[in-house]
Write a structure and sequence with these properties.
single chain; about 450 residues; alpha+beta
């Protein structure tokens, strides 16, 4: 019984010592001063941009379709004598494909036969007209003789009337045959048009390139039947010139006011990481689109592609250049966002002005005349904090454009290489690095301690 009481008492004593040691270690870590994360004021160029995404597109694309229906029986050949396919270089009038022309050849033959028939009809009508003219001459002579005799004992009244009406009928027949000739000639014209239409349809069976360019899409195979209806089926897509490309970019309505024609643009594509391409704004399309209550406009950017690296329909990460500042002082944006606590400010400095509303001991920094003029010109004021031992002191600056990561700053006390505070190191990291290891951490052999293991008796 006494042995158990002794063991319990020993455990309680050990736990108490461990608790006291842990409390001492924590107090020691908290007593360590905080460290600051710092950066430097640098002198560099600053480019203010708007970011957007887009797609690389050929500058001009021609969609080649079929104007007649039928089965594809063969492809044409490109400049190298190979069958037309993707990336084939073609010239104007190069044969791209052929459609089965047997039906359309029959239509041409039928239309030609109808034309010959119409021409024969004209000849027949002309012959009828000559015959009617001869009959008219005979009827006219008979009527003239009857007219001289008149109704008398030599010429009965009925015969007189017969000559008269025969002459009138002959004149009418001539006029009728003349109309028949006109009708026959119109039939010839109609038949000629039918022949031309049939020949044109037959020619459509041979699909030719309307422009010089590169095949970027082939949408048909040999043996496939194309059906031409109200919309011509698309067979080939030809880019006229891949040495100049366009980038179509969707720009938010909040940023579209900063975009203008001729504006410099840089963009990257995932196919060539680390390589930057350049272009300029060509036009802003006015047909905006709305998606989930967000209005966007398509901006067309032209770029040179003499190298041939840019392929159609690559995704592009675009930056529109709004302004460029050359050889200016810049700081990370974190330096302008960070503000110290009152106990971190050096006793001889205070905080006032545009950077904050707190005041400390001593005189508050005042902006210089140049900085005040910059603020008057529309620039905002800001405050940078410079480490001074375990404290920080403020430096009043005027803030210029930013690219999202760095910001231009101006101030009489600024210089290149000046160290400024970006933030604080986490307390745990600072405490562990300065307070040393915990006394309860086992020590390894050969480093000033005994081997880790259970304590001896």
């Amino acid at each position: 019984m006494k042995r158990w009481l002794k063991r319990i008492a020993a455990v309680i004593i050990v736990l108490g010592l461990m608790g006291a040691g842990a409390a001492w270690y924590v107090r020691r870590a908290e007593a360590q001063p905080l460290s600051f994360r710092t950066g430097e004021v640098a002198r560099d160029n600053l480019v203010v941009t708007i970011s957007a995404t887009g797609t690389v597109e050929p500058e001009e694309v021609v969609d080649v379709g079929a104007q007649v229906a039928g089965q594809i029986i063969a492809f044409g050949q490109d400049k190298n004598g190979k069958a037309i396919d993707y990336t084939s270089d073609v010239d104007e009038t190069t044969v791209l494909a052929r459609i089965d022309e047997s039906v359309y050849a029959s239509d041409v033959a039928e239309a030609a036969a109808q034309l010959e028939q119409a021409k024969a009809g004209v000849q027949h009508a002309e012959a009828d007209l000559e015959q009617m003219k001869a009959k008219l001459g005979q009827a006219q002579a008979d009527w003239e003789r009857a007219g001289k005799l008149g109704p008398s004992e030599a010429l009965a009244a009925t015969s007189y009337d017969a000559y008269k009406y025969g002459y009138e009928i002959a004149k009418a027949n001539v006029a009728l045959d003349e109309a028949a000739i006109t009708q026959s000639k119109a039939a010839v014209t109609q038949a000629e048009a039918a022949v031309q239409r049939a020949q044109r349809n037959l020619a459509y069976c041979t699909i030719k390139s309307p422009v010089k360019g590169v095949i970027i899409d082939r949408r048909v195979n040999i043996g496939q039947t194309v059906i031409s209806s109200l919309n011509a089926p698309s067979l080939f897509l030809i880019a006229k010139d891949l040495h100049r490309m366009e980038v179509w970019v969707s720009v938010n309505e909040m940023d579209i006011g900063h975009i203008h024609r001729g504006q410099a643009v840089t963009f990257t594509v995932d196919a060539y990481p680390g390589e930057t391409f350049r272009g300029e704004v060509e036009k802003i399309r006015l047909n905006a689109s709305m998606t989930q209550n967000v209005v966007t406009y398509i901006v067309e950017i032209t770029t040179d592609n003499s190298s041939g690296k840019l392929l159609p329909y690559l995704s592009a990460n675009v930056k529109f250049e709004l302004s460029r500042r050359e050889n200016v002082l810049i700081v990370p944006n974190a330096a302008l966002r960070w503000s110290p606590r009152a106990d971190q400010v050096a006793p001889a400095a205070g905080v006032s002005g545009p950077a904050g509303g707190r005041r400390g001991a001593g005189n508050s920094p005042q902006p210089s005349a140049g900085a005040a003029q910059a603020v008057a010109n529309g620039r905002s004021g800001g405050m940078l904090w410079v480490p001074e031992g375990m404290k920080v002191r403020p430096v009043y600056v005027t803030v210029g454009p930013t690219d999202g990561a760095m910001t231009e700053v101006e101030g009489d006390k600024l210089k290149e290489g000046l160290e400024v505070v970006l933030g604080e190191q986490p307390r745990t990291a600072a405490a562990v690095s300065t307070a040393g290891p915990s006394p309860f951490t086992p020590r390894l052999p050969g480093r000033g301690g005994r081997p880790a293991g259970p304590p001896g008796p």
